[in-house]
Amino acid sequence: MMSHVDFDDYLLQMTVWWRSLFPLCYILSCVQLYCASSQVPQKAKYNYSLRLTRLTRTGVQRLLNTYNEQQLGNKDFENRSLRLSSLPLLSTEFDSWLRLTDWERLRTASWDLHTYWDMLERKRKQLEGAEGEQMAGQQGQSTMTLLQSIKNIQLDLRDLMKQVSFQMSHMNSSSVNPTASTPSQNPPPSYQPPSNLTWASRVEGYIILRDLNLYLIKLARDFLLLASKIQL
Ligand SMILES: *[C@@H]1O[C@H](CO)[C@@H](O)[C@H](O)[C@H]1NC(C)=O
Ligand SMILES: *[C@@H]1O[C@H](CO)[C@@H](O)[C@H](O)[C@H]1NC(C)=O
Ligand SMILES: *[C@@H]1O[C@H](CO)[C@@H](O)[C@H](O)[C@H]1NC(C)=O
Ligand SMILES: *[C@@H]1O[C@H](CO)[C@@H](O)[C@H](O)[C@H]1NC(C)=O
Q: What is this structure's pTM?
């Protein structure tokens, strides 16, 4: 039978042996890995959203040039003083942007993406109407290509909306308001009867695409910030 002192010695030896096999840092890293494993997918999701945002922006830049060339007769058309009040405000104070909670950031992204999707839908319908009315041959063909490019951007925006909606439900699974985050539940924008697009209406398309391009830069920053908050 071990004496009291012997037993203490034995315990100490065991502890040392145990420590040498499983150093504290190893144990800590196991705990960390365990915690991180539930966060890696979320970080990867933000990563995906970030890449998708950048890809979409590249597409928007290309479309903006094509649109300007076709509809305004100048690839490099630019007029910064032109604004549309129905588009999301692009200039936000850095401090208030930084102070947004993750939830507010995602909710705002969801709203803004919806707005751009709707604006593109309205513009696309207008162009389609004008195309059906009077454009033919070569010009009709390039308008069709333009319409398809707008549609592709809309698909990307919808994909982004789905990502944001997923991230919101991941963050808050019990109380997500489905109408606030599901893209397909918005009422379709009111249909514009076919007519020649006026200059003002054409310029509107330029403003939408120009602001969408800038907006996607801002959105990429949002995803970068969201991803950076998930530490491994
Ligand atoms: C995110 O993407 C970058 C490359 O774009 C990659 O280097 C990094 O490992 C990715 N991170 C995660 C968590 O997927
Ligand atoms: C920009 O648009 C505004 C408002 O329509 C107009 O008054 C101004 O002349 C335009 N500027 C240029 C450089 O075309
Ligand atoms: C969950 O959603 C509600 C609204 O549906 C919101 O007010 C609340 O802040 C959300 N909670 C979190 C943790 O994001
Ligand atoms: C569109 O414009 C052309 C030329 O400017 C004109 O001949 C045609 O009648 C217009 N169509 C409509 C629907 O306004």
A: 0.73
